[in-house]
Amino acid sequence: MNTKVNCNSAQRPLRVGILGGGVAGATVALRLADLGINTVIIEASDGLINGPPICHLHAGGNLYREISDQQCLTLLRQSIDSVRAYPHSINYRPTVIATPLTDPGDAQALLPRLKQVAKEYQRLVDEDPANKVLGEPSQYYRCYSREQFIALAKQPIPEQPLSHDDWMTPLAHHLDPSQFKFPLILVQEYGWSLFRMAATATLALEQSEYCELHVNTRATQLEQLNDGWCVHTVDQQGHNQPFKVDFLVNACGFRTGLVDDMAGYRRERLVEYKAAYVAHWQTDGHWPEVIFHGPRGTPQGMAQLTPYPNGIYQLHGMTDSITLFKDGLVASSAYSAQPELPQPYQTQLDHGWQTPDITQRTQDAISHLARMLPAFKQATVAGKPLFGAQQIPGSDPSLRAADVSFEGAHYARVEIVKASSALTAADRIVYKLADLGWLTLSEQAIQHGLSPQLTITTQHSAHQIEASAVKLTQQRGYPEALALNMD
Ligand SMILES: Cc1cc2nc3c(=O)[nH]c(=O)nc-3n(C[C@H](O)[C@H](O)[C@H](O)COP(=O)(O)OP(=O)(O)OC[C@H]3O[C@@H](n4cnc5c(N)ncnc54)[C@H](O)[C@@H]3O)c2cc1C
Fold first, then answer.
1. Which of 21, 246, 462, 481 is the most exposed place for a label (fewest CB within 10 A)?
2. Are 40 and 473 in contact (CB under 8 A)?
3. For residue 254, how far is its CA from the centre of ligand 1 (angstroms)?
């Protein structure tokens, strides 16, 4: 674990302002508070980590065939760090990657990269045994031939899966092997509970003497000072309050461009509007997550089945009628760093979804999954979608590993695409503050980096986090299963 850092200012302690309390802003605040650095979070909504969904950890990037090997290795390292930073938020079950015959891809194409990722995982575990958070490195993935898969269909579905075979057996009972290319690949890519992350951050930051948390408060204007910023805000009652900070972190998610505009900084970025759906399906046994590959944006686009307890499943389908939206990917312009989404999507973001849209798109998602998993057509709509807009810095829509950029000596913008990149962004901010002379880091931190384990997130038990996460699902109107531990 890390010790507190020395803040070097002679006049006053360093105060970092964080705009946006999504996973990016909350993680920066956790890291800074853990080191004893004062933060003030300004969050427009009524709670922390309350933005677009997070269901998959992406420890190895194996869901994305199109991204570079380097991005996969980065996501692996960042995911391991994230498990250590948010220890009670992981849904421990593997992911199965299946390539249907309708997909033009080669089922074997992933194998060279999986070998590299498994080797890197072994190296990280050798470097620090505490990195062994994804099981044995030698068991990181396993390939199933057609014959092995057919043989599993003759086994009973285990009540409590303990081995790779146990996890694969429900699929063997339900999928038609003649519709798939082999191997099917089972990999230790776990789920991530947004609600238990939100509970972890809320409990830790509400109790931290180093964090001042203002929810229901929106930053409306920025004033640059010689030695920092004055952030002008308005709360729900219409009260205005200014906050003076030495260093500002813009972590406003898909609205990061609006704050860049307030600060007068130009920036190229994309914003994509997307949604995932919640269904109930009563079936035997425990399911792994399942990815059915397919070309993105076509009617056969990738389908993703993410299991939670009590028969609740989260669904993605990479087609325009399910997860993606027509003209839902927009770019910034020469006039504004903020990309503009079409008005209907902006309205859904601001006011939520109407029931007919919820029913139609969730039913489309169920049918999309049922093409490959026929029994899934019995599934029913189990609530409103998890939806939101996601930012991607630059102009490459396939970028998945991104973290932070700086402007001058007082401004950072955190632009993550995957939640696991948040801790890397936070750490780079700490090193920037040290470079600027605000703090002195220990020799250990300079030589080896900061430990991903945070004292502040380990002070509550798994049970306390789960109970608090369940309350958040109730407040936000989602099934409690999304907050429950998988075991
Ligand atoms: C359908 C979908 C599925 C996804 N699935 C996954 C997944 O499985 N795994 C994964 O890692 N990632 C996933 N993502 C991406 C993930 O949701 C985002 O990377 C992540 O939420 C970004 O976090 P953030 O903190 O940057 O932004 P946000 O969560 O959007 O937080 C930004 C915060 O800033 C606040 N804010 C904005 N403007 C202001 C202002 N002016 N003043 C004060 N506060 C302000 C907002 O209220 C918000 O709370 C998914 C995204 C989508 C859309």
1. 462
2. no
3. 7
Q: In the chain, what percentage of residues exceed pLDDT 90? A: 94
CA distance 29 to 429: 11
As a whole number of angstroms, the distance between CA 393 and CA 410 comes to 20
The residues spanned by each domain of the chain are 6-52+195-268+396-483, 93-106+143-192+270-393
Phi, psi of 17 (to 5 degrees): -95, 130
Could you tell me the CA-to-CA distances from 16 to 157, 220, 244, 376, 441 in Å, in that order?
Answer: 53, 18, 9, 49, 17
pLDDT digits (tens, 9 = 90+) for 92-146: 999 999 999 999 999 999 999 999 999 999 999 999 999 999 999 999 999 999 9
For 93-106+143-192+270-393, the fitting CATH number among 3.30.1380, 3.90.1720, 3.30.565, 3.30.9 is 3.30.9
Distances (CA, A) of 388 to 321, 328, 349: 15, 11, 7
Looking at residue 66, what is its pLDDT? Answer: 86
Does the pTM of the predicted model rise above 0.90?
yes
Exposed, middle or buried: residue 136 (CB in 10 Å: 0-12, 13-18, 19+)?
exposed
- Cβ(387)–Cβ(275) below 8 Å: yes
CATH architecture of residue range(s) 6-52+195-268+396-483: 3-Layer(bba) Sandwich (3.50)
Q: How far is CA 452 from CA 68, 135, 364, 442, in A?
A: 25, 18, 40, 15
pLDDT in tens, 234-277: 999 999 999 999 999 999 999 999 999 999 999 999 999 999 99
Q: Which residues approach ligand 1 with their CB closer than 6 A? A: 19-25, 42-45, 50-56, 58, 218-219, 251-255, 274-276, 323, 388, 390, 416-420
Q: In DSSP terms, which residues pair with 386 in a beta bridge?
A: 276
Nearest to 116 by CA among 124, 107, 105: 124
